[in-house]
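Entry for pyridoxal-5'-phosphate complex. Fields follow.
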Amino acid sequence: MSRDDTPYKTYLAEDELPCAWYNMRADMAQKPAPLLNPATLEPVTAEELERVFCTELVKQELDDTTPYVPIPDEVMRFYRMFRPSPLVRAYFLEKALGTPARIYYKFEGNNTSGSHKLNSAVAQAYYAKKQGLKGVTTETGAGQWGTALSMACAFFGLDCQVYMVKCSYEQKPFRREVMRTYGARVTPSPSMLTEAGRRINAEHPGTTGSLGCAISEAVEAAVSQEGYRYVLGSVLAQVLLHQSIIGLEAKAAFDKIGDSPDVVIGCAGGGSNLGGLIAPFMGEKLRGECDRRFVAVEPASCPSFTRGRYAYDFCDTAKVCPLQKMYTLGSGFMPSANHAGGLRYHGMSATLSELYSQKAMEAVAVEQTSVFEAARMFARTEGILPAPESSHAIRATIDEALRCKSEGREECILFGLTGTGYFDMTAYQKFNDGEMSDTVPTDAELEANFAQLPKV
Ligand SMILES: *Cc1c(COP(=O)(O)O)cnc(C)c1O
């Protein structure tokens, strides 16, 4: 079937719940650059990737031409426990801002993991189980991905080993306990269980870890145990594919109510919620059917899009993962310790990076104090206590709505409310006590990391 005679509506199971994911890359004239083998600098082969990742997920990762991928029945059954997620009109926020803009949010926090990450976790666990694997390994930073994956693994009966960035492991004991309740083994990273962890501990005594470092440990743990593969909760094209369910549902709901967003806004860590939310809307833009704006919102303390380089870089600290062409701050970049708001990854999805470089998308960087001000306003008007990550999108949405007010424009704004913030109360406490500060890396700091980019 060509994509012209298969509009996404064909794939709606019931209400807004789609029964196929949408692969945005199929509609990109200029595709994202291929992943490279870190040793040979040649494009990675499926065979090489299959040593680390599940076979079906490798297929999805390398497929940039198939527009729709059917969602397996078992995954659909799991989705039905918490999907479709609500698309909500933020009337009270609109009123508080006095804006003529119509503001909608797609709320992904209505499941125990508290974020959109469960959408991909359940798909990845399903494919691992179907392949007959014993278990999977992964890293988690703030803890949402590890929580989502441990839920998915419990459901499908898989072992789940999570390397959790040490500072979060210590700051968020309750996240850890949720994962353990679902049966996951949680190890603070860097650990002494892996070669990579031992090396990082020796080179940086007392380090509290980073995502790049935890990735290295999780990959090593997967390849050194029989029947295990590594899974990743963001950045990869396969994750954006699974997250397209967010945008597909939102699009179906908009069609039903007869509205359509002029601007789509999402926070960007590795780019998976944003890539999923914008997918069908960006598809329309790429096919020339409709034009609209897309805005990625990132922390000023970890500004991959707005101040990064578009270059091949390592995805992890130990440089064992494939090289990806993306907007990056360098794989050695670590956001300042006072940064509390998540979205700490040094790189970005290759798909979104290519779209950004083509100027099909915009990006803004926001400082964390203003992010928490937006979070507070949202909590007080709309009732939901937002995750700090999600609050980046709220900040940008409020700014767009205020622009609409000053320009007298009745635009329709859609933003992704990716999750709830119950495990982030230490950050809220800092903010409430007036002790939160903003740290922005200097040009010199960024240059030092750019100098370490691999020469490709
Ligand atoms: C992980 C996470 C993000 C950022 O990840 P992306 O891959 O960029 O979407 C945003 N919000 C929440 C609540 C998260 O858990």
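NOTE: Residues 115, 117, 144, 234, 267-274, 343, 387, 389-390, 418-419 surround pyridoxal-5'-phosphate (CB under 6 Å).
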